[in-house]
Every structure is written in C-alpha cells, then in structure tokens.
Structure to design on (246 residues):
C-alpha cells in the first residue's frame, strides 16, 4: 500500500470510530449479575425515577433532546432506570390482581408479560432504555403509553416521525417494533434503547441462568417458571427485538 492510500485508509478508520464511538467501547466492558438484574449499577447517573439512567445513555439523550427541541419537539422521559425491587412491585401487584380476578397463575403471568417484564429481566434495569413522549403533544392523553398516540393524528406522532429519522444518529433504536412476525412484548413505539451500551449488556445477560435467579429471588408465581416457560420467554420476550439491538 502506498503512502497516499495508507493515509486515506487511516482517515477512514478514524472517521468511522468518530461517527460510531460505540464500536470502540464495546469489547472490554464486563457487568456483574446485580448490574444486569437491576440491583445496583455504578454507571448510573440522575437522582429521580425519570432522570436516572446509564451515564453514557444520559449524555447522548441530552444531545438528542436538544436536537429535537429545534423542531419544537420536547422529548419527555416517562420511564428510565427501573430497579429490580420496583419491577418486582409492579409484577407482583399485577399477579395478585389477575389471580384474584380468577385467572390461573400461569394465565395471569402470560397476561402480565404482554407488556410488563418479569423482575430481573427488564431492559430498564440497565439504565439504557427510555420510554419517551412529546411534552408538546396536545391534547395530552391521560394514559400516554398507547401506540395509537404515536400514529395518525395522535399527539406524539410528530415525535415518532422525528425519532424514525434521527434517533439512530444518537445511538437510540426502538426495541419492540411493529413487526407482525415478532413475538413477545407487544409493539411499543415509545420504548427506545441506547445501543452502544445495551448491546453488550444483553450479550452479558444472555449468559445468566434466568430460572435460577427468579427462583432464588422468590418472585410470586416463580413456581410456574418451568424450563419450557423460561426458554420461550427468553426466545420471545428477551431476544425477539429489533435486530439492530442484538
């Protein structure tokens, strides 16, 4: 390779890492079991339910929020980091409600996981995933996290269109896409994940013995988490996501 070609190739490589910094920071990071299941993470920043997230996620989110503001879109976080205990409260409350209404335990669990994760398996445990709406969307619905609000003439459709065009520039991707071939959690146009961190965290998470963890934590209903149930849940709810996040 001559000197001119060498310089050109080197500059291309540097430019690529500048545009895609996550390529340079993915390989050597390791994560503890507690980090991966929402029981503490030294990389978190923020002091409220709506501001706590992974520090790299937070930095990129602020850049994305500023860019959207130039288009009169006020990105608002309605859910960020969620601890194991908080997810356990949500899951067990729904489990109690559904079973008291007459559903069999396994049917109650299947109903819950249409939208809510089993504690210890939520992507929100990582601080990389955010539920987003447009604070400028009007009229603001009472229940903001419904897909219909992000399409047609919904109050958050402008945000959805902007994210479709621009979110990837900041490292964010929709997790549970509107793909008829996808299984697991239902479509969530509000749920975005910061790929440079969530991809390596998912890679590490896949090595955990989920069934053992859930039974060890004595989650209500965990007696019904059979090997077959966990295998299906892992395949459909954990891994059947936007391929760009695998």
């Amino acid at each position: 390779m001559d000197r001119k070609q060498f310089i050109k190739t080197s500059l291309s490589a540097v430019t690529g890492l500048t545009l895609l910094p996550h390529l340079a920071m993915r390989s050597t990071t390791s994560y503890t079991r507690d980090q991966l299941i929402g029981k503490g993470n030294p990389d978190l920043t923020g002091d409220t339910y709506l501001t706590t997230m992974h520090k790299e996620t937070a930095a990129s989110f602020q850049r994305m929020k500023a860019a959207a503001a130039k288009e009169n879109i006020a990105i608002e976080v309605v859910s960020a980091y969620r601890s194991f205990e908080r997810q356990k409260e949500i899951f067990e409350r729904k489990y109690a409600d559904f079973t008291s209404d007459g559903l069999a335990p396994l049917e109650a669990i299947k109903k819950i996981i249409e939208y809510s994760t089993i504690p210890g398996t939520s992507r929100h445990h990582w601080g990389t995933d955010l539920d987003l709406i447009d604070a400028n969307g009007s009229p603001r619905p009472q229940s903001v996290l419904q897909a219909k609000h992000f399409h047609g003439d919904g109050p958050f459709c402008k945000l959805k269109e902007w994210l479709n065009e621009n979110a990837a520039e900041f490292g964010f991707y929709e997790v549970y896409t509107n793909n008829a071939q996808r299984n697991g959690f239902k479509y969530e146009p509000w749920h975005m994940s910061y790929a440079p961190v969530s991809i390596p965290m998912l890679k590490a998470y896949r090595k955990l013995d989920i069934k053992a963890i859930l039974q060890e934590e004595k989650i209500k209903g965990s007696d019904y988490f059979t090997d077959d149930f966990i295998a299906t849940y892992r395949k459909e709810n954990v891994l059947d996501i936007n391929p760009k996040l695998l």
Notes: Strands lie at 44-45, 53-54, 75-79, 129-134, 172-174, 191-194. The chain has one domain: 29-245.
